[in-house]
Design goal:
348 residues, alpha/beta, Aspartate Aminotransferase, domain 2, Aspartate Aminotransferase, domain 1, 2 domains, 7-stranded mixed beta sheet, 4-stranded antiparallel beta sheet, 11 strands, 36% helix, binds 4'-deoxy-4'-aminopyridoxal-5'-phosphate
């Protein structure tokens, strides 16, 4: 049966008359703006922050569309990709009726967002070698499963899932498949953005927080067919991305070549760190990674975590997460930072 967006959008969202902001209602040429109850006298800052920002982030989208070879109407810009995750719940999931499926161990916000929105979570754990478990996924899905989250490269395991497998899921699943590509820029795998018009139920998330190095700005992206993105725009808060963030992103987008160089450096530093970690005796296993972190199985995660803290180095203790017993997740730092980490670990 062909996927139709109207079949899975919540009734209240279909009925919704979206908020119409002053900045959206009037877009012609004017010199005196008395329409939005802003402070016409200005602000304590030299810049024009007394005005509301562009609610649809037109300039940023034009540039992102160019880089990713999509139309601007196929891009949602949010206050971090966490905003896109939350919107997916609010658009598609009926509280206390619908459910979503995650494949743990995976990014924690899917579950937190589900709980906030009062949506039950179903789990199809990855296999012991962190692959997608197709029979478990198929078993867990029912008519009320509205979202299926696949994080690739996956946090905290670091591995990517084969493209054909994700697309197979998109084909068999009647709800929205959300492919979270927060770490895709560090991976040799190609993004699935190019598939958004072949699979109308595909939403691809990316972010400026990782490869772009702009976590502090809080800007994330969702790519999907224009009809799905139009629904995001109806539901999102009117001015969800600040003027400062929009200006900074526009500036950053001019430096894509520099960002690509940094990505290459991080990847090469990752390989160097992995090689050095593998020679340390308390490291029992290094899981293959396509991300800017590596999951490390150790002899005693808790003790090592505390020891590193005493050395003023903080890593992420994932040892209580399913399938991650004994594991620490280590972000790739600068070479000096990685050296300090290695030096500390060799001393234990
Ligand atoms: N997805 C994944 C897989 C993540 O690991 C993170 C952040 N740790 C996010 C999304 C959230 O990114 P953002 O900063 O864009 O909200």
């Amino acid at each position: 049966m062909a996927f139709k967006l109207v079949d899975i959008v919540r009734e209240n969202i279909k009925r919704l008359t979206p908020y119409s902001s002053a900045r959206k209602e009037f877009s012609g040429a004017a010199q005196i703006f008395l329409d939005a109850n802003e402070n016409s006298f200005g602000s304590p800052l030299p810049e024009n922050y007394n005005r509301y920002p562009d609610p649809l982030q037109t300039e940023i989208k034009a540039k992102i569309a160019e880089i990713n070879d999509v139309n601007a109407s196929e891009i949602f810009v949010g206050n971090g990709s966490d905003e896109a995750i939350d919107l997916l719940f609010r658009i598609f999931c009926e509280p206390r009726t619908d459910n979503v499926l995650i494949c743990p161990p995976t990014y924690g916000m899917y579950e937190v967002s589900a709980e906030i929105n009062d949506i039950s979570i179903r789990r199809a754990n990855l296999t012991a070698d962190f692959r997608l478990d197709f029979p478990a996924i198929e078993n867990a899905i029912d008519a009320n499963t509205k979202l299926l989250f696949v994080c690739s490269p996956n946090n905290p395991t670091g591995n990517s899932f084969p493209r054909e497998e994700i697309l197979k899921l998109a084909e068999m699943f009647a709800g929205i498949i959300v492919v979270d590509e927060a770490y895709i820029h560090f991976s040799p795998e190609k993004s699935l953005i190019g598939e958004i018009n072949h699979f109308k139920n595909l939403v691809v998330l990316q972010t400026f927080s990782k490869a772009w190095g702009l976590a502090g700005l809080r800007v994330g992206l969702a790519f999907a067919n224009a009809e799905t993105i139009a629904t995001f725009n109806r539901v999102k808060p009117p001015y969800n991305v600040s003027q400062i963030a929009q200006e900074a992103i526009l500036e950053a987008l001019k430096n894509y070549e520099t960002v690509k160089k940094t990505i290459a450096e991080i990847v090469s530093e990752r390989e160097r760190l992995i090689k050095n970690l593998s020679a340390i005796s308390l490291v029992e296993k290094l899981y293959p990674t396509d991300a800017n972190f590596v999951l490390v199985k150790t002899s005693d995660a808790e003790r090592i975590y505390r020891y590193l803290l005493a050395e003023k180095i903080v890593v992420r203790n994932r040892s209580s997460v399913e399938l991650c017993a004994g594991c620490l997740r280590i972000t790739i730092g600068t070479s000096a930072e990685n050296e300090s980490l290695l030096k500390a670990l060799r001393k234990i």
